[in-house]
Structures are given as C-alpha cells and as structure tokens.
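Below is one protein, fold included:
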Amino acid sequence: MAFVVLDGMAEAAYVLDSDWRIVFGNQAFVQHMGRPRSELIGQTIWDVIAPQQHDLLRSAFARMRDSGGVENFTQTSVVHTGRTVDVRVFPVLDGLAVVFRDITRKIANEQALATSEAHLRLALDGARMGDWAWNAATDVMTLSDRALSLYGLKPEDQGITRTELRRRLLHPDDVEAMRVAADQAYSERSLYDFEYRVRYGDDWRWMRVMGGPYVVDGAVVGVHGLVQDIDKRKRDSDRLQAEIEEREKSQQRQQLLIHELNHRVKNILAMVQAMAAQTLSTAATPQAARAALESRLIALAQAHDVLTRESWDGAELLDIITGAVAPHELQTGFRFRIEGPRVRLEPKTAVSLAMALHELATNAIKYGALSSNDGWVEINWTVQPVAAGIDLRLSWVERDGPEVKAPDHKGFGSRLIARSLASEGGVAELSYPPEGARCQINVVLPAL
C-alpha cells in the first residue's frame, strides 16, 4: 500500500534495503533516471549514480541512521548536469526512503528575484528614493535604509508609527493635505503622488511620496510606496518658474510701454498742434508767438520727463499737477484753478497721477474746456486719515467749455487713466455731464 502511495507522488521517490539495493522506485524516479524500471530495481544505489556523488549520499545516509530522523539536503542531480534537486532521506523498516524534487527553476527564479531586487535597490539609491510600507492595523511604518536616511531617522527609529512620523517631521502646512491624499488612496484603493516638506535639521527639505494600497488576499491591509528627495529639483523649478513669471511680467510691461509710447507720440503731436494754434491766434507779434510756443514746448518736455524718470524719490502733489498742466496754461490761474493741502506722494503714485492728469489735459484740449478760449479746469483735493494711511480724493472739473457728451467707446486714454490708478489700488471715475467732463480720483496713500 505504501508503494502505491509513493508511486502516485509527483516527487521522485525510491526505497533502499539494508544492503543499499533499490527495492522500489516510483514513476517520477524512473523518468528522472532515464532508465527502465527493470534496470534499476535490484541494483545498489552506488551502481546507478556517478562516483562523485557517493560521498555526499553516504554522509547523509549515515547521519540519518545515527539520528533516526529525517535528513534534508540539496545536491546536483546524479544524471542531469546543471540541475539541482532537494533531497529528503528518512528511515523505512530496515532500510531508508529517498524523496527528491527538481528545484532548478525555483533556484533560478529566486536568483532572478534577488538580482532584480538588487537592481531595483541600485536604481532607487541612484534616484535618491526609498521604499516604505504602512500597516493599517498597527499604524507602524516599515522603512528601508534609504527611506530612514531621507527622513533623517536612525535605525532605532524603525517601526515608528505614521502618526508620530508626521508629527515629528512634516511641515505643519502640509500635514492635512498629506493625510487627505493618503486616506483617499487607502479607502478608494487608488494611487497618490504628493509633494511635501520634512524637517531636516534646522531647515525643511522637499520630498515626493508615491503610494498605493497594500492588498493581501483581497483585503487592503495598508499602504506602501516610495519616497524621493526632490529638494534641489523643487527649488530649481520654483526659481525657474519665478524667473519665467518675472520675464512674462517684464514682457507685459514692455508691451504696455510700447502701446503707451505710441499713444503718447500721437497725443504730443496733437497737443503741439493745439498749443501752436492757440499761441499764434493770441500772440501780438510773430516774435511773441515764437517765444510763447517755445516756452510751452519746454514745459511739455518737463512734464513728460516726470513720467519716465525711474529713480524718483517722491514728489509733492502740487508739483505733479502744475508740471502736468503747465504746457496748457497761458498764465497762472487762467486755464487751471488749483487748490488743496500739501501732500507727499510715493514715486509710483506720483507717476500714475501724472499720467492720469496728462490724459485728462489732452482730452480737454481735444474735446473739452481747453478746446475753447474761455474754458478752464478746476482741480482740488482733500485728504483724510484712515487706518491704511491717507485717503486722497482729487476732483477734475471742466467749466465754460463746449457742451460735451460721453464717447461712443472707451479709448486707450480713458483706459490708461483707470489702469494707472488701479495699479496703485486707486479708482478713477470719468463722467460727461453737458457742462463739462469730470473725473473723481480716489487713492489711499501710505503715511509718509
């Protein structure tokens, strides 16, 4: 009955008597030996295997007989070169039984797996990556040596809980987002990829974690994945992004300046023509006309200088206003009546107001009160302390000019008035009642 059972085994098996003769060999043994059963039964084991195999088998058989237990060892196949078998020897009656199986493929797979793991470890080390696993039942983290190093942890920190790791190492601003990403991956059996900062000495370093569900027998028992040091790449990327954004802003400013320059050239030509016509129509002699025109052109150049000066350290509001309207004033108080308290402006605000006043004056010459000999403009302002600084409210009111109406569309000049003040957090509101155009400017100035 025992031989029937042995004959049905997938593993090769044979039985030796006390004289080392083969008294039984199952079908797997016969196939492995490559000889008919009739040539094997009755032969001693030493007759059918190569002499170089004798010592190993004799030692194993001796140990088994001395101990009375099972002897287990690995050896090269006695008939197939290059193949390895796992052998078990145990006593049977007054002899012994030998069961063996070919483990060549298993060994090759294990070696391939070890090689693959070694290559993976080299790749992870080269990419400054470490692997980790989190056990949901215990909250314990298992970290590779590289992962421990990346987190600045010591070997004795192995087994740290995820809760403790986050508390000790993660940047406070990243903890909640990290928790949400990891919990979602765990509950939804999905992958997550997250960049965060960890404490590294007195500084913070950027890390990238990639993880997914750890599934055993169909159940999610945790999360496992990789962690990578991306600090240099992240900082280089942020620096490059900042440079790109600054370059784009610079290009936008340059484009705006080009549009502004084109617009100003046209405006200057129109203003020169208007000043020339008014000067020639009111001057008593050609010499007087020439002198008046030259002085107005010089004043125009001085006002334009205010707009393009980069190293300005601030200005008085009154100086900005008088500089902007000087090219259009025949004599002080004739075309412009200006009133308001002393106010000191920062350079950017001063330039923005000068641009707005310049546009208002240009429009007044083209279409408004300054296009007629009797028209004039009232400019006044008030200041009021507020929590953020000083609230400046400036009014431009055109009087005694031709009847006006709102333009059909908002031109670049009107947009520039609003844009120049908006860049300083201010507001410019244009209105066109029939008696004359008006502009109300409101901007909060820092307390100087």
